[in-house]
Write a structure and sequence with these properties.
CATH topology of the largest domain: Heat Shock Protein 90
Low-confidence stretches: 339-346, 373-390, 406-422
CATH superfamily of the largest domain: Histidine kinase-like ATPase, C-terminal domain
Largest sheet: 8 strands, mixed
Mean pLDDT: 80
CATH class of the largest domain: Alpha Beta
Length: 611
Amino acid sequence: MTDIIHLLPDAVANQIAAGEVVQRPASAVKELLENSIDAGADKIQLVVKDAGKALIQIIDNGCGMSVTDARMCFERHATSKVKKAEDLFAIRTMGFRGEAMASIAAISQVEMKTRRHEDEIGTCISIEGAQVTNQEPVATSPGTQISIKNLFFNTPARRNFLKSNPVEMRHILDEFQRIALAHPAVFFSLHHDGTEIFNLPKGNLKQRIVHLFGNNYNERLVPVEEETTIINLKGYIGKPAFAKKTRGEQFFFVNNRFIKDPYLNHAVSSAFEDLLPDDSYPLYVLFIEIDPSKIDVNVHPTKTEIKYLDEKSIYAIMKSAVKRSIGRYNISPTLDFDQETGFSNMITQKAVEDIVPPSINFNPDFNPFASDSSSTSGYATSPRNYEAKPSAKNWGSLYEITEQPIVEQTSIYADETVLETKQKQYMQLHNRYIVSQIKSGLMVIDQQMAHERILYERFLVHLDDRKGASQQSLFPQTITLNANDFELAKSLLDDIKSLGFDVREFGKNTLVVEGVPVDLGSSNINETQLFEQLIEGFKNSQQELKLSKRDSLARSLAKNSAIKAGTSLGQEEMNTLIDELFACKTPNFSVSGKPIIQTITLAELDRKFEK
């Protein structure tokens, strides 16, 4: 029997490694940006076409490479950052494995131009499918310029698994934002299909956050800073009032490397305990500086997971530091026992000499039982000069009410047949539930979940027939989103219009809302808040429930526009709500799958009263 174990060819081995390192265009963007940071660049430009499928280009002004290094960087496990095993526990660079460039070259067409600052001429290398097709001297600026074309051109199965351009672009924006946040002293720019998405000047961390997410974030940030013998912590947290329904704006960095850590996230969330609802998540951008020998970053190919030597202490420091910032900047409610604030605004400070005691004037000659003439004269001398005149006439009519016939009151125990002929009456309980009498007992309906179900099914119909009616706003509202949400909104624009929104693009990262769905009623609607909640709810449904785009949009708008618990309803409103609920395809269950209707039978009531 012949031997069956053999070495894989380099091309096959590189493609297997590429499956771990380069899962989508965003993975290549991350690796190339980190290489530029490690090269000491302070100016990095990213150019993307077709969401990275056609072109990913990185231009930096880093240290550049020699001719030999330029050729060697595409070999597997070739790196300048690690020389021996002990170096893995003293790593402060972003990359160290030496696999990224070889993996990228194995599944794309790569052209690299590089020159060191001390050299007069640079090197140009072209590689296609891990094979070098050209290498020649070239005149180029100091630094490195890498162009990746036709990603996954030789692995069509991997290319077919890529998502749509808006989805892939959002992943690229995520990676770009993480790198840009970690290095605010570096200039970054991002262009997609000829349009400038970001132009981030050098600055501090707060300026970088504002440039990335929008000017309105300037008032949302609260600084956090803590220095201990274990870690140094710095960064910003968001005020509870601006918490969102998704986790998209939560960033941890350890030694400037972005990480995902549910354990530390729990520490921050517990610091916000009792300040946020259960389904809201605060903004935070937190940086941990720690001795590299006390962590292990070589855990996952994407290097987003880290193991700590003293995890519990870091958790305690993180929680206490965030709590102290919340208290220091008066985010949490406080009690001042030295002053009763309830009456402070009602007291006007005046000088003692300006205080005039009140005086009382009266007419000692006034007689309420006197004749009309005398009373008139009495009132004429009154200081207030009243025009009213007392009259003693018709006083006897006061007792006429006693002579009226007594109207017999209707008993609350009226004949049930009479009640059945009248329109069914509902009662609202605590402005949250609608209660009605049925033959077997009582029926209790949750008004908010009922309205959500009605709107959800109505919006699904609009998405199918594309005929959602719009109610024009008196004053159109402009909405500025961060780059990621703007890309998402653009991809959903046709479906959003089908729901009844009249919305269009209006410049960079800006939309104009000129109308909202008529199904939302005639109540005062904040178009900006409603649209932002629609986007947030859609992202939450996509992340948590993996619903289709159509269901996610309908669910999000229904949840955000339904009447809330605590809303008082009139009898006609309750009748309409119940009628529309029972006209739904699934009236018994809410959008979240919870029961809308509960019944309490007479037998259950009897048991409560021990009958």
